[in-house]
Amino acid sequence: MASCCETEAAAVTTEAYLAGAAVREARELVAELCRHFYAPGWVTGTGGSITVKVNDPAVPLADRLIVMSPSGNHRSVTFRKERMVAADMYVFSADGKVLSEPAAKPWPNKPPKCTDCAPLFMKAYQMRGAGAVIHSHGIETCIASMLDPGAKEFRMTHMEMLKAIKGHGYRDELVIPIIENTPYEYELTDSLSEAIAAYPKATAVLVRNHGIFVWGDSWISAKTQAESYHYLLDAAIKLYQLGIDWTTPEHGPVNRAKRSRSILNPGIPNECHAAEPLKCVVLDIEGTTTPISFVTDVMFPYARDNVRKHLTSTFYSEETKEDIKLLRVQIEDDLRNGIPGAVPVPPDEAGKEEVINSLVANVESMIEADWKVTSLKQLQGHIWRTGFEREEIHGVIFEDVPEALKNWNSRNIKVYIYSSGSREAQRLLFGNTEHGDLRPFLCGYFDTTIGNKKETRSYFEIAQTLRVDSPSQILFITDVFQEAIAAKNAGFEVVISIRPGNAPVPENHGFRTIKSLSEVCER
C-alpha cells in the first residue's frame, strides 16, 4: 500500500496537475522575474537563471514541484531572458527529475536546453529548504569577488541594507562564502554544497569571476535579498574605489594601519624587533577575554536550563526550524558514529512534545560533553540572546580588556574574535558587558564555520580573509596550547594567556605568556 507521501508525490506529477493553475502561475512568475532582472543586467547575454517552487499549500514544501528558467547558453539563443514566456520553462520534481520541458521553436532558434545550474539549484532546495533560488551574473557580483583574489569570504558591516538579509541587523557582520569558478557551471556543485554546509546562516554564495547564488524561503524573500546583496556588493566596489574600508564599523581608509609598532611589543619601535608590523589582533574568548568560570558556571547552565522553554516557545519560528534541522543532521551523524548520549529524534509527525523531548536530551548531552559543533553553538546563541534581552545574564570580561581594545583601536589595529561559540553569541557577549557595549572596537567575528580552532587550515582561512600581506602581521592570543600550535603553524604571531582557572600549558612550550592584555603593549 502506498504511503501518504508517495501518494502526494504521484499526485503532483500528473498531466492534470502540471497543466493546473499552481504550476501555470509559477511558470508565469519565473518569466516575469527573468524580464524584471534583465533590466539591471543580472540575466543579460547568456548569464543567470531563476527558479521557484510551485506555491501549493496542500503539498509540503519539500515535495513541491520546481519551475526553472532554461539555459541562455549561446548554443540555445532561443531563450533570451527579456523575451521569456511561461511556456519556456522547465518543470522538475522535488528530487530533480524533469517532468516538463519547453517545445522547440523554429529557425533561427536553437533547441531548448536545461540550465547547467540545475544541480546547484537543487542543492539549495535540498540543503536549505529554499522556496526560490536566483542566480545572477550582475557585474557587481563578479567584481566584488575579485577585489581580493585570495579571499574565501566577502565581509561587510555597519550598512543599513544589511537589515534586508535574513538574520542580520545594522551592526552585524555579513559573511558571504566565495568559491572558485570552473569552466562548466555543473562542476561547481560540490564546492557550492560544501559552502552551504560550512555557512549554515548564509543565504548566498559568491562564485569568483562569475556571479552569485541567492536563496530564500519564498520568491519574495529571494528577490528582496538578491536586490540587497547587489546593492551591498556595489557599495563595496564604490567604497574600494574611494579607498574606504567596508569591513570595519568605522569605515575608515583602507590600509591605514600605522606600521610603526612591532607585533610582540607594539609599544616598542620597530628597530628593536625584526617582526612584521601588527595589522590585526585575533582574540580567543574563554580564558583570554572572559573567565572560563563565566562560560562554564553561567552561560552553559543557562542554555541547558532554558533549552526546553526556548524550543517550546519558538518551535514554529523559521529560526528554530533551521536550528532543529541542523541538530537533526548532527544527531544523525552522532548516532552513526556511536557517540554516547545521542538519541534518535522522531519525525515531526510524532508531535511537538516528542520531538522536543529528544532534542533536549541530545542538547544536554552535547553541553555536558562540551561539543564544539555549529548546530549546538547556534542554538545556544539564540537561547543566550533571550537571556541578554531579558537582562538575566550580562557579559563578563576581564578588567584589562576594554582598555586594550581602545588602545588597539586608537592605533588603527583591527581586532577580531575567534571562538567556538557562534558569531551571534560573541556579539551578544561583547555588546552586553559590565563595561558597556564593546562591539564598536571589534571589526569582526569568526566561529567554527571557518574551521576547528585546533586545525592549522582554520588560521590560513582567517589570514586570507583579513587580507594581510603576511600571516605574521596577525597576533593571536589564546589560552589553549593546541590552538597556539595551529596558529603558529599558519604563520601567526602567538601569545598564550595565563588567567585564573585556565588549564596549565606544557613546560618549555616556547610561547610568550601574558597575564593581562595590557602586557602586549609593554616590554
From TrEMBL:
Active site residues according to the UniProt entry: 160
Pathway(s) it belongs to: Amino-acid biosynthesis; L-methionine biosynthesis via salvage pathway; L-methionine from S-methyl-5-thio-alpha-D-ribose 1-phosphate: step 2/6; Amino-acid biosynthesis; L-methionine biosynthesis via salvage pathway; L-methionine from S-methyl-5-thio-alpha-D-ribose 1-phosphate: step 4/6; Amino-acid biosynthesis; L-methionine biosynthesis via salvage pathway; L-methionine from S-methyl-5-thio-alpha-D-ribose 1-phosphate: step 3/6
Protein name, per record: Probable bifunctional methylthioribulose-1-phosphate dehydratase/enolase-phosphatase E1
UniProt cofactor note: Binds 1 zinc ion per subunit. Binds 1 Mg(2+) ion per subunit.
Cofactors required: Zn(2+); Mg(2+)
Binding site for Mg(2+): 284, 286, 479
Coiled-coil residue windows: none
Chain sites annotated for binding substrate 2: 419-420, 453
Molecular function terms from GO: acireductone synthase activity; magnesium ion binding; methylthioribulose 1-phosphate dehydratase activity; zinc ion binding
Organism (species): Panicum virgatum
Residues that coordinate or bind Zn(2+): 135, 137, 210
Domain Class II aldolase/adducin N-terminal, residue spans: 28-237
UniProt similarity note: In the C-terminal section; belongs to the HAD-like hydrolase superfamily. MasA/MtnC family.
Region spans: Methylthioribulose-1-phosphate dehydratase: 1-245
Catalysed reactions listed for this entry: 5-methylsulfanyl-2,3-dioxopentyl phosphate + H2O = 1,2-dihydroxy-5-(methylsulfanyl)pent-1-en-3-one + phosphate; 5-(methylsulfanyl)-D-ribulose 1-phosphate = 5-methylsulfanyl-2,3-dioxopentyl phosphate + H2O
GO biological process, one term: L-methionine salvage from methylthioadenosine
